[in-house]
Specification:
single chain; mainly alpha; two-stranded antiparallel ribbon; 63% helix; transmembrane; copper; membrane
Length: 144
Amino acid sequence: MMHMTFYWGKKVTILFDSWRTDSWAGYLLSLIALFAVAAFYQYMEDRRVRFKIIARSKPSSTPGIGAPFLLPVAASRLGPPARFASAILFGVNSAIGYLLMLAIMSFNAGVFIAVVVGLAVGYLFFRSGGEEDLVVLENPCACA
């Protein structure tokens, strides 16, 4: 039976019927795997944002801050390979994020902690360098 509240324990089913833990060693290995996947999620998000910055940093004749309504035109000047690669990275990152969310929905407190700590550590190592602030500063739209 599936739990509908948080619980502590080594017996948990994560994502698939075949990913069940019955021993403390298996449970610990599963938590380490979830921690690593959560940190990898932050790494992939950093790669996606950096790719977008690099792809948009090509010199163009479209003024950025002076004409905020022309920003979509500048984005459309990216070549089809760059847009396709960006879409692929977004799709992979979205899939990883949803799988992490579904793992948390096992309602095991250890799984929850492993994923949240993995996301925090991944953010610390891969995304806390200030690039997000740069993206926000480059966007003149007040709603960004």
